[in-house]
Design goal:
By secondary structure, the protein is mainly α. The protein is built from six helices and no strands.
């Protein structure tokens, strides 16, 4: 029960950061699109500030999910870089898959232990220890 409460709090932290980032990204996309329509002469400000800022804002929610997955996977001793990259690409699907796999491992620990069992090292020489 305690583990489920901790995961619930972790998900609440994700939602606390994800929802505002999603709203800000949507508003920024609207503002940048309306600004781009009104620009008659695209100057350096449009090329070097507005376009990169728009791209960053467009993917802000993916970055939030990637950061959350990185730290949560690190806490659970999983491959945090892999999950963070998957979070950048797959967004909310990555969180669903991560939590699904986590709960599957918790419900079926015997199956997971058989798969992750450490194989004994092969001896190079007969007299090796």
């Amino acid at each position: 029960m305690v583990k489920i409460m901790k995961i619930r709090k972790k998900i609440e932290v994700l939602l606390f950061w994800y929802v505002p980032a999603y709203i800000v990204a949507g508003l920024a996309a609207f503002v940048f699109a309306s600004y781009a329509k009104q620009v008659v002469d695209p100057s350096w400000i449009f090329t070097y500030i507005v376009i990169p800022l728009g791209l960053i804002m467009k993917h802000l929610d993916n970055v939030i999910i990637a950061i959350w997955l990185y730290f949560f996977a690190k806490q659970l001793h999983q491959k945090q870089i892999l999950w963070a990259l998957f979070g950048l690409l797959a967004n909310v699907f990555a969180v669903i898959l991560f939590l699904g796999l986590y709960f599957y491992e918790k419900m079926n620990p015997d199956e997971v232990d058989e798969v992750n069992a450490v194989q004994p090292k092969r001896k190079l020489f007969i007299w090796s220890k």
